[in-house]
Write a structure and sequence with these properties.
single chain, alpha+beta, three-stranded antiparallel beta sheet, 22% strand, globular
Length: 293
Amino acid sequence: MLSSLDAMTLDDFLSANEAEVVDTQHAEWPGVRNLNLQDPAGNRWLAVLCGNAEAAEVAQREGRVLDRIQEFRPDLCRTVPRVIARIQYRGAPSHVLTDQQAVPIVDQALFAEFAFTWLTALWSASATVERPTRLGSTWLEQRQESRQPPGCKLVDEMLMQASDRIVGTVIVRTISHGCLCQEHMLLTDSANVWVRDWSGANEQSEPWFDLADAVLSLLGDRAPVVLSTTRRATQPSRYLLRDGLRCLAIDGGYWRDLLLLRLADRACSITSSAVPSDWLLQRLAVEQKKGNP
């Protein structure tokens, strides 16, 4: 029988559910350990273990976002983990999530289709109309707080020009996953979407963050060339970006600015990423120098 949400240790949870640790799962945040658990009946869980106070804060935010999503319509709830146990790990609050057997969506067109459908459902369910924000304001706040972009002059100039162009458009706040990519949006055995690793989640975010992350995931190491030249993006990424911005009522002409700002934001973030943003920014600087001898 599954345990309640009362605090317990990992050993308590394993004993109560006759489960065992089968392997580990990559964790985005330093100080976090993800353990895959399974019982004899094949039920799967993910134990998110926090080794320090900062990691515990991240896990608590992840739990709050996942709890809130459980209030939304059932078809959206089924695509995300659910917190089923609060546990203590070395004195730090941690938790256990439901998990499913799932594989990455390798086909780019299929990933773009699933990402658009899932994102529009999340945006619609979590939009906070009474607390709008201005496009790009979150990025500016993070930069002012200490997240400085890499010190390449050309890239710095591109970032400031991009932020100057987009700031001003009013948009609604929504829940964001924080690192939506092909590594985190998976397909289950029953062909349903499963979105894992919510450690970068935010309850009051700018919705285009997840859209940009999904597009950058599709572009991969082609991103610098696409962002610094007139070269067109791949078809799936282009359609996903076009349709997503249209759904958010954001001027499609801002697409390059938004991708650039999100790329810089991820490069300056404490987390690692399925998209190696710092490396891509270095490549971007190289591409810019080619065009500015």
